[in-house]
UniProtKB/TrEMBL annotation:
Residues 1-18 form the signal peptide. It comes from the Eukaryota. Keywords: Disulfide bond, Membrane, Signal, Transmembrane, Transmembrane helix. InterPro entries: GAIN_B (IPR057244), GAIN_dom_sf (IPR046338), GPCR_2-like_7TM (IPR017981), GPCR_2_secretin-like (IPR000832), GPS (IPR000203). It comes from Oncorhynchus mykiss (Rainbow trout). Its main location: membrane. This is Adhesion G-protein coupled receptor G5-like. It is a multi-pass membrane protein. GO terms for cellular component: plasma membrane. The chain crosses the membrane at residues 247-270, 282-300, 320-343, 355-376, 408-430, 451-474, 480-501.
Amino acid sequence: MMKSRLFYIMVLLTGRLAMNEGNKYSCSNYTQVDVDGVRCWMEVVNEQFKTENLSTIIKSVEKLERVLENTALNETTSIIVERLVAHIFRAEGHFTGLNISASQERVTSDGDRVANTTVKVHLPKELLKTNENNTIIFCMITSPEKYGQLGILDGRIVGLAVSKKRVLGLHDKVNISMPLQRPTLESQADKQPSCQFFNFSTNKFYQDGCTTEWKRDEGRVVCSCDHLTYFAVLMVSPSISESDREILSYITLIGCSLSLFFLVVTIVLYATQRGAGTDISLKVHINLSVALILLNLHFLPSQQAAALSSSGPCIYVAVLLHYSLLATFTWTAIEGFHLYLLLVRVFNIYVRRYLLKLSLVGWGFPAVIVIVIAIIDKDTYSRVTLHPSKTNGTAVEMCYLSNDVMKLVTTVGLFALVFVFNLGMLAVTMRRLKSLRTEQTSREKGRARRDTCTVLGITCLLGITWGIIFFSFGQLTTPGLYLFCVLNSLQGFFIFLWFCVFKWKTEDSQPGSDTHYTNSRSA
């Protein structure tokens, strides 16, 4: 009897050890796991939230994501381990979208109400193709102790994924709704919610592809994102206030409309006046005016095009807006080059078909960039979210270049080069004006006023005012944005004034040809 009892105890101990070894194996091998393996990994991560540092936890959460994506299940399953909530939905047949509701005690996707709902998720039918049988993974992790130090609302992150599929660029966005309790707002009165996603490669949060919708008098914040990953609501300090943002929008709208009107008037005056096409400098100004007309024509309706359900108009506006912006930068660079010939290479420089060559560069170079981008990534011209508006009450979108790398290289990079070159040309102009002033009699009246007007006009033609955005940071953010919006939205109006003064001074000049000569008198 004693021997049989000892044998039974040994069998139980052996079985328990084998089970523990099995759990250990399933926790370390996440290529293909079952429900027990998922629960094992969730228990490991849950314990690490109590004992480990944040960097170790982040690595374990990344492994847990792979475990969930590789879970082999035949039916929808929910698993809850203290602060971790997972829901694995088995999609079969025609997928029409999915709504998930979750709290710390329960999670469901069958439409049942969940008491004390913490997170609501809507996944669009665009997520899966027809008859595509994949597993959709939802994971909610709540840890105010660890994630709270990152500024995450309630210390909660929400992970969404589709097994064996990378989801990017959704037209119908994924919506994630979370509670925004009033005590949180009162304790952080200077903060605003911002929907962001976590990049495991850089261990940083980013806003790209996500918009934030919220109102102070409502108790929820809605994140709309065009991709799947781990999301969180961060409480951040707004760069500018909501009132300033609204004022800046009106300034931009009114200024761009006025610029568009006066630029059209400039072109009409140029086309109707006799002898208008005789001066090369004037022709360069007119080409810059045409580029600005195209820019304003496609910038003003960009938000309306982004709001349309059809993507065709938005793609058209995005392509033309990017092209016209690049053309504007290119023609401001040509203005600088032309000024260089007038002020530095002064004495009779002969250039055959000068204006034709300038036009090939001014209009052809931007076209080449746009075509190359379209070939590399045909979907990059689409709806994008305006970065300054990602933390306000409404989601603001426009049609433009969505690829951040291409945007940085082709827009910011190109303008940085143009800005540095034209800033140098502005310095040369001021130095030249100073030398001319010393050569002339000091009794000449109004010389300083005319020099000031000349410098301001050339500053506008060279696009120097666009560079204000480089210096809008810290305490200079709000004043810099006001100055940037006022000067650049009215750039067309300033060019119109310059054109009027230019024509008044050159109306008696002799006719010329499309061959460019420069001399000290014209400079």
